[in-house]
Amino acid sequence: MHESCGVFGIYAPGEDVARLTFFALFALQHRGQESAGIATTDGRKIQVYANMGLVSQVFNEETLSQLTGDIAIGHNRYSTRGSSRLTNAQPIVVGKDSNSLAIAHNGNIVNAEHLYKELADHGYTFCTSTDTEVIANLILSSHEENWVDRIRYAMRRLQGAYSLTLLTNHSLFGVRGPLGVRPLCMGTIDGGWVIASESCALDHIGANFVREIEPGEIVVINEKGIESYREEVSRRALCIFEYIYFARPDSVINGRLLYPARQAMGEGLAREHPVDADLVMGVPDSATAAGIGYARYSGISLAEGLLKNRYVGRTFIEPDQRIRDLGVKLKFNPLPQMLEGKRLVVVDDSIVRGTTTPQVVRLLRRAGVKEVHMRICAPPIRYPCFFGVDMATRWELIAAQKTIPEIRDFIGADSLGYLSIDGLIKAVALPKDIFCLACFTGDYPIPVQLEMDKLALETIAIEQQRSSDLKEL
Length: 473
Ligand code: SF4
Hints:
- This protein has 473 residues and is of the alpha+beta class.
- The protein is 35% helix and 24% strand.
- It contains 18 helices and 24 strands.
- The radius of gyration is 23 Å and the shape is elongated.
- The two termini are 31 Å apart.
């Protein structure tokens, strides 16, 4: 499953804002590993440096020292819209002189194609294939006089998911779309302000968490201080996968630290799907806390059955299927002495395509495990995501194509249990109506019919291509 970026912003006169942004991006690396970038302004012009790779590969002393000024924004990218190439790396800078802005985006704009055509018809040119540049040009296209009203104009036109940091020559902005699909929070640092996708980025740079930026809110920070503006919100739709998987367990979202929420998911699984077993393990690292929760509730001993090579990125980061398949072997090494002859409960965060789980089960069986009982924190994923998570087409989602017993057989497990939606909500301990659960239920927070139609056509094209490939064979 693919997530779509981490964003950061800082207003801190007198501080080395580029270096602080570098360390914040380092803490947000899990949200995107394809490219990284930082933009700064010294009040006269905006400078930007971005490149392909991890934050530590992209920046060095020389590049950081050239990014001067009092305001910075930063971005880690995984591509959901727009291909994986340097021109699509963010932040993106648009406009000229005092009419210029830099933007970093986490999310996905559902009506980007329509807006792109409209802007192109009005003479706006695009250097990237990202919906982020559509947002930036939409803001520039507004005839309103100040930046806040221009952003508000764009917010009224945009549909979908967006958490943004923006900078102009004199101000830093944090913007969260009215649905609040992606998180965004703010804090203080030595007389300045920071904005980040997750609170863990604040912790790492010594900033103090103040609050979340609310759905539909624009925060403006400049020499006059901080101001907040709110747009109307009709429905909230925070992505539940932030709690299951995307966000770091030491982050706080909606006042809830993720680590105990994930432990509670494991407890819920033990309550809903008990089994006689000798050991429990969580697939590291994303299901470690849930594994602890399962062990605690069931009374079965906890074991570390797979060791993770921490220097290999998450397998989903590789956009290519061949690399994704290789990824599991590169990533995990089983401990046969711990596992031989054991009946093992394996807790994992989710099953999307069903490509990774069979490999994990095979690895464990080869290490001598007698029984493998898979327990999954996310309910069956039956619908694609249109809000920035590149999880697959419906055709590729295993739970959209197979029953649970068929999935159990396909992955080669002795039993398989998914946490129910109610069990998941209970674990997160927040009201159900603030969440997007669309990939489980198909109930999207906004109409996505056009996207669905497009996807259906793509699916038919893939199927036709496959059947003609088969005929040729
Ligand atoms: S559809 Fe699923 S992955 Fe996408 S935003 Fe909603 S809950 Fe998150």
